[in-house]
Amino acid sequence: MTVRSSHGGVAIGTLLQGREPESAVLTLAPPLGLLDPALPLRGRDAALRELTGLLDTESDGSLHVVHGMGGCGKTSLALELARAAVERAVRVWWVDARQTASLEAGLRAVARQAGATEVDLRSGIAADALWHCLPTLDQPWLLVVDNADDPVELNGAGHLSAGTGWIRRHTAPHGHVVVTTRDGTRATWGPTAVLHPLDTLSDADGAHVLLDHTGGRAGGAAEAENLAHRLGGLPLALTMAGSYLSRTTEIPAAFRDAQTFTTFAAYRDALEGGLGLVNAEQAIAQTWRFSLDLLRRQGQPLAQPLLDLLATFADAPLPYTLLLHPPSLAATEAFPGLDGPGLWELLQALSGVGLIRLLTAPEPGSGPPLARLHPLIRDTSRARVDLPTAVALMHRVALNDATGVPEDVAHWPTWQVLLPHALHLSHRIAATHLPTGVVEDALRCAQLAVRYLSARTLYEPAHEESIHILAVFRNALGDRHPDSLHTRHHLAHLLHGQGRLDEARAEFEAVLADKRALMGEDDPSTLATRHELGRLLHDCGELDIARTELQEVLAAEERVLGPDNRYTLNTRHVLARVLYDLGDALVARREFEAILDVRRQTLGDDHRSTLTTRYNLAHIMYDLGELGAARAELEDVYAAQRRLLGDEHRATLNTRYALACVRREQGEPAWARREYEEIIGVQQRVLGKKHPDTLATAHSLGRRTEGAGTVPMTGWRRGTRWA
User: Fold this and answer.
1) Residue 496: beta bridge partners?
2) What are the backbone angles phi and psi of residue 347, rounded to the nearest 5°?
3) What are the pLDDT digits (tens) for 184-222?
4) Which of 204, 319, 347, 657 could form a disulfide bond with 417, CB atoms 3.0-4.6 angstroms apart?
5) Whole-structure pTM value
């Protein structure tokens, strides 16, 4: 197997904790497109009237909690409220709480749009910044946090019920906060929260839901009420039954069979054989089974296997055009002979009976189309999981050249939607007894997902997932298997990115010893670890040792890989940094200029690697006193990095820091100090208070750092941040 190495990259980052760059696929707009004018909200008039009434009155600052069982229509109610708010010119923010990443990323984005600065959003006080800014807005606003079924995620650095979490009582006269959740306990939300319970629908309202779907073709109001009663009034079950009957009643009578229910009465009679005491799980299971039976009789026997397969992936939007590869599916026992048109017909059929929802990307070009299962349907289907097929599909996509390496910014939208599924499968297979090959494939996909996290400088979640991957690899293959060694190498790389230099060095040295023994001195994987060790030695200040190590690696790479290979250029690049710090400024400058020429020709002016070299050249210009040229180059690099990587990426922060140093030297100390203050706020949250970059910025600011006194303002060189 060819392993895609992250050799030489500076990339490590944070996605799962919500530190999304501006280019990430994130929208705060309410998904009003999910509202179907032909299917109005039923049975929630009083609740909707109460909530929309808030929009017409001055707020008392209360937190409003809409709660009820899964499938009872909480999101639908919140969407109707959002529509009413938009019609009243109220600013609406919609934050999805199902994934930790989207929750925190969304709330931070709300804070920014409300006026919070990066220094306001520093570690520990981001929620405070949100609630400092929101009350200052003159425009009426509504914040909806949807599907907060694990309210612990809303604690942040404080506590939800104490009023110090991400969501809290506030003083904004024109603002309202609404949360939807399954948890309606007073202890969770605090004594001042206003609880809005949603129960199941009455028989009459449930009948309206059924009649809306069928248009009177399946029977009258009385029969619809009987069926609604049998389904327990659960909106999700009613929607699924209505979708089923809408489909069957359109089948010509000559083509129907005895098992195709076309009336409310027939559907209810069929339920009698499968439902005991009505509860949500039973109602969903039965309507789910009837819908699949219908599709099977309509010549779609693969509908259930496909639904089961979809349920095997994570509870997150599924990029179905990427993962559901018809030739791969056709080669399996479950989907013999399935082709592309047949697969699309299956997806449309599942969507037609309400078992899945097909979504489009938030905006053109922002990512692939997605499919989503309701959590209750997913839970019902998970009994028949097909992990080997799911892993094979994920492996095909993750290792496909068209998907691109995770470090390539152009492919980040793809890796963002693949990420939760790759990580989910790696955890699922850890608790099974699958063939070793399946386990290896799942873990290799997870390795690539971790590299994506790393490229986004999301070090902590990347580190946690790498530990899990390594534990499974060690258990299945041993500590010195190539896959285990690759994971250990990347763990050391993450430790280096986190500033844990001693731990990183020990791990790199141990991995290098094993690679030399198993793969030989000139194996590209061995050279990759030697390269990383040389880079680490430079950052540890051991310049002479680093120079010797990197010169040997460079000679070997030129011989084995060629002089223009990207890994060879990476080593040449790091060696130039070492030579500069040893005092060979002119030699280092010539090296950077030569590397820049190659990278511009082969990669383009705005590629991450090209920007890295341009940044380092500006570094040299600064130290040589060429302040105007350094500033112009850094401003170009900074603009490109903000566009490609986002404001919170480590490389972007380093360039911003360098610009502040240059402008300070040009006579703008007050401006530079404000920049340092904002940068250190972001670094403390993204990298940690003790990370070397954070401490270097504190040093430049003249702040007291842990274990040291107040230090004077320093030049860029004193806090050198090579890339």
Assistant:
1) none
2) -65, -45
3) 878 888 888 999 998 889 999 999 999 999 998 999 999
4) 319
5) 0.65
